[in-house]
């Protein structure tokens, strides 16, 4: 293996000298994971052991020793090595880790290990051809699932990666995430890496180093150890001054020391002080960083094979390297023998070739003249593809060729980009398409490549997407009319995801004005309405509502847009708080017994997830929980099956959390919302999904009687002014005012709720469920201005009755009863209980029962109060509303004893 055989001394194995603590740490880590598995079954605390240091300090030898210790202890070991020349090959390290382990499984075991994830993980693991397009987060989640299933069958598990700094970004991103999950799994992670990571993946170093349980930063050997190595290699007669010079020249680097001593032996140099002056020159020769050195040492034919091998990096196939350097089987075999003799190449367990040390591989690669290197990368791309390894493997070589305006190169890079997207590697696709742009493509193809480049970065870099799609739309030769419409819509999506809703709507409006009448133009016009609807602020919301209603009357009804417009109109009516009957008629016209049409599917890219999402929320606010639950459950399933574990699944989890909250299942709501929030954090701070999840989670915590936690959550995520330009569910300014009210800041709450109400009324948004600002404002002003509070309460109830659903009316009556007293308050609470008894929100029903119980107790009717409070207590416990349950218990305890 590279780095020499396992050992603790000797002239050819210096790498483990002065490494006793590091070896002991590996042994203890192995013992610990094995012990925990024996004691706790398949649930054990995992660890990360990390060796860090410059090249040549023995990281590979330590990893080899750790592998030996783990195997001896009965661990299943998964091993991989990053490669300097394979960093642009997505999931290269993942495939090394998984393929040998998966090959040992029976067909039935493999089915169990993959579960429903095979179509998602298979392409990244090299088990399925690329097809379609996968979400990167979904692939990472699928890899987690597969590894966890392997753990359950092969625990304890040791996952070891050498040269982690050269791992491809896709594998490195997954490994960095998996280090978090490994804490509660029977797995030992052992990584070895240099101090510095290449540009583009440097952020992963801190992530991984920060999570290391056992971190060992390797140091060079001391002079005494180097002297021992010198005398072991050259004899006990080696003079102290000579040994000291060896240490000074190599800096105590074990690998460089061994190579220098080998060169000294080859030159038959006596180890005496008078020869010490030649050591520096011999060290330069030993490290072989020049073309002249390698030509002299290997000869031109063998060197050319070595160059081809250096292009391939790791897992080198002799026949493929021979084809790249135009050597037949016999000549290639001769080259390999010579490279073995000079300790340049060695064999791996699977019969392939590998460089004895990464420093040699780098030296060989860097010794190629630039023109030769470029030409050989071109030959490598061709031979890799001819060998049946596909464009995924060939594309990294195409990236290294010089642009020459070759249409065939552009074609291959575009195909490679599509395959990268199909395995969940959008960054690799972007690299290919950027290289295609520099070729450059023909004028007729330039806009299409820019369009593909923009779409490739849509999930990972909205800012880059905006720039590329604008360029594509500005091209002289331009896109086909169909692509132009799609490019505009994708551009608007990217702007919307960047919190630029106004620009998104304007882009669609401008392009629609330039587009010929037909389906494409209508799609852009509807998209304009959609992005305008989602803005938090709009100059004239009521006018847009009128324009939308008028627009719907002139649709032809045969191009799939009618459903989209009906959903927008439904949502518009819901936000306006209009009679819910009309909104539900529109919703039912879109669905088939609650099922979405194909044009509005959760994974359909024509519109995105926003339209089916607001359709489901419209059902929810209308108390049609059955319809909403069917839609939201379908969303979760659709995204899980498709492997879309990023923002799409996060939004679906948020919707399920909102559904559970509106149903009064507060325990389940909190679980779903925290999962949605975790997903949002993995994507980027401050995205709309984070605002949504934090808002409803804060509402849930208030309902559960944990106002301090709700406030802490809001502070942690800066939930407060200034608000995003996208509308938030629930209305963010209203919820912020409610948090102030819950914290006892009546003046601050009144100010915030008044401002929220003014903005909402200006837009014509009067929905009492999404933004119940009036009732809470009534509570905030009641102590100082009870007459105004009652006026506000009357308006809140009027709006709720106008909207219609039982939850809206009942919860508003219950809230506004607090600013009345005597018979009027009792009447409001009695109606609230009656309305909520048939509504789906059990928590609101429990609140109304508790308030009614308190009111009738104050009116001197303890038996009736006990009946209401008992019912409230039972509902509160089932809802997980612990604060309300405690209140009900306390009030029950305070009631006089007596006959019911």
UniProtKB/TrEMBL annotation:
Q: Which Pfam families match?
A: AAA_16
GO MF term list: adenylate cyclase activity; ATP binding
Q: Which GO terms describe its cellular component?
A: cytoplasm
- Orc1-like AAA ATPase domain spans which residues? 41-190
What are the UniProt keywords, alphabetically?
ATP-binding, Nucleotide-binding
InterPro entries xrefs: AAA_16, P-loop_NTPase, TPR-like_helical_dom_sf, TPR_rpt
PANTHER family found in the cross-reference section: TESTICULAR SOLUBLE ADENYLYL CYCLASE (PTHR16305), TRANSCRIPTIONAL ACTIVATOR DOMAIN (PTHR16305:SF35)
Instruction: Tell me what this protein is called.
Output: AAA family ATPase
* Organism of provenance: Streptomyces kaniharaensis
The organism's lineage is: Bacteria, Bacillati, Actinomycetota, Actinomycetes, Kitasatosporales
């Amino acid at each position: 293996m590279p780095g020499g055989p396992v050992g603790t001394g000797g002239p050819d194995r210096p790498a483990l000298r002065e490494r006793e603590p590091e070896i002991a740490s590996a042994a203890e880590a192995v013992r610990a994971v094995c012990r925990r598995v024996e004691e706790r079954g398949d649930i054990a605390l995992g660890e990360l052991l990390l060796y860090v240091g410059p090249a040549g300090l023995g990281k590979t030898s330590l990893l080899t020793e750790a592998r030996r210790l783990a195997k001896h202890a009965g661990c299943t070991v998964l091993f991989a090595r990053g490669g300097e020349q394979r960093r642009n090959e997505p999931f290269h390290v993942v495939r090394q880790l998984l393929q040998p382990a998966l090959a040992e499984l029976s067909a039935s075991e493999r089915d169990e290990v993959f579960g429903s994830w095979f179509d998602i993980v298979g392409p990244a693991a090299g088990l399925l051809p690329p097809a379609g397009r996968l979400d990167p987060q979904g692939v990472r989640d699928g890899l987690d699932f597969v590894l966890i299933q392997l753990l359950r069958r092969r625990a304890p598990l040791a996952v070891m990666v050498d040269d982690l700094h050269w791992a491809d970004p896709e594998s490195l991103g997954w490994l960095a995430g998996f280090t978090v999950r490994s804490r509660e799994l029977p797995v030992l992670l052992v990584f070895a890496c240099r101090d510095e990571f290449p540009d583009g993946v440097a952020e992963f170093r801190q992530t991984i180093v920060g999570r290391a349980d056992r971190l060992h930063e390797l140091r060079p050997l001391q002079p005494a150890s180097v002297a021992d190595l010198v005398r072991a290699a050259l004899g006990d007669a080696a003079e102290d001054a000579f040994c000291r010079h060896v240490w000074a020249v190599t800096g105590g680097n074990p690998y460089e020391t061994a190579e220098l001593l080998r060169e000294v032996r080859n030159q038959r140099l006596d180890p005496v002080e008078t020869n010490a002056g030649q050591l520096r020159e011999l060290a330069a020769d030993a490290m072989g960083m020049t073309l002249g050195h390698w030509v002299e040492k290997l000869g031109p034919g063998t060197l050319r094979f070595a160059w081809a091998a250096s292009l391939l990096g790791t897992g080198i196939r002799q026949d493929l390297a021979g084809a790249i350097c135009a050597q037949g089987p016999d000549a290639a075999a001769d080259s390999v023998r010579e490279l073995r003799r000079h300790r340049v190449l060695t064999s791996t367990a699977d019969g392939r070739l590998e460089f004895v040390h990464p420093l040699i591989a780098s030296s060989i690669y860097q010794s190629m003249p630039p023109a030769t290197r470029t030409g050989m990368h071109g030959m490598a791309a061709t031979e890799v593809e001819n060998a049946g390894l596909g464009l995924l493997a060939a594309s990294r070589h195409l990236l290294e060729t010089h642009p020459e305006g070759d249409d065939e190169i552009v074609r291959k890079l575009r195909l490679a980009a599509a395959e990268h997207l199909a395995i969940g590697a959008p960054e690799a696709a972007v690299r290919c398409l950027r290289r295609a742009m520099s070729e450059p493509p023909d004028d007729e193809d330039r806009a299409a490549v820019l369009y593909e480049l923009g779409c490739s970065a849509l999930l990972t870099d909205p800012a880059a997407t905006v720039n590329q799609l604008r360029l594509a739309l500005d091209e002289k030769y331009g896109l086909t009319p169909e692509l132009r419409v799609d490019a505009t819509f994708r551009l608007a999506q990217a702007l919307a995801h960047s919190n630029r809703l106004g620009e998104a709507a304007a882009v669609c409006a401008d392009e629609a004005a330039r587009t010929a009448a037909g389906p494409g133009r209508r799609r852009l016009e509807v998209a304009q309405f959609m992005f305008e609807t989602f803005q938090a602020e709009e100059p004239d919301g009521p006018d847009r509502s009128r324009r939308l209603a008028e627009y719907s009357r002139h649709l032809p009804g045969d191009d799939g847009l009618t459903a989209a417009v009906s959903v927008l109109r439904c949502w518009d009516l819901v936000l306006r708080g209009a009679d819910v009957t009309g909104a539900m008629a529109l919703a039912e016209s879109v669905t088939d017994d609650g099922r979405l049409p194909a044009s509005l599917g959760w994974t359909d890219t024509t519109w995105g997830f926003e339209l089916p999402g607001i359709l489901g929320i419209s059902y929810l606010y209308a108390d049609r929980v059955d319809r909403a639950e069917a839609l939201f459950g379908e969303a979760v399933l659709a995204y899980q099956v498709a492997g879309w574990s990023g923002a799409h699944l996060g939004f679906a989890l948020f919707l399920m959390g909102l559904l559970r909250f509106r149903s009064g299942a507060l325990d389940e709501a909190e679980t779903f919302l925290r999962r949605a929030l975790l997903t949002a954090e993995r994507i980027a701070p401050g995205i709309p999904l984070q605002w949504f999840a934090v808002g409803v989670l804060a509402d849930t915590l208030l309902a559960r009687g944990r106002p301090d936690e709700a406030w802490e959550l809001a502070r942690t995520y800066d939930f407060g002014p200034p608000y995003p330009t996208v509308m938030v569910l629930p209305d963010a300014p209203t919820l912020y005012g409610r948090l102030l009210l819950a914290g006892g800041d009546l003046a601050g709450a009144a100010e915030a709720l008044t401002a929220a109400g003014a903005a909402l009324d200006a837009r014509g948004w009067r929905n009492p469920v999404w933004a119940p600002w009036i009732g809470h404002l009534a509570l905030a002003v009641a102590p100082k201005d009870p007459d105004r509070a009652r006026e506000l309460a009357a308006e809140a109830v009027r709006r709720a009755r106008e909207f219609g659903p039982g939850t809206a009316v009942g919860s508003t009556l219950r809230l506004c009863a607090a600013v009345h007293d005597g018979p009027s308050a009792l009447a409001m609470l009695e109606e609230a209980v009656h309305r909520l008894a048939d509504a789906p929100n059990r928590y609101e029903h429990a609140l109304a029962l508790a308030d009614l119980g308190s009111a009738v107790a104050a009116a001197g009717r303890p038996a009736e109060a006990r009946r209401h409070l008992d019912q409230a207590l039972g509902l509160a416990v089932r809802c997980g509303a612990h604060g309300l349950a405690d209140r009900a218990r306390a009030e029950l305890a305070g009631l006089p004893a007596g006959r019911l």
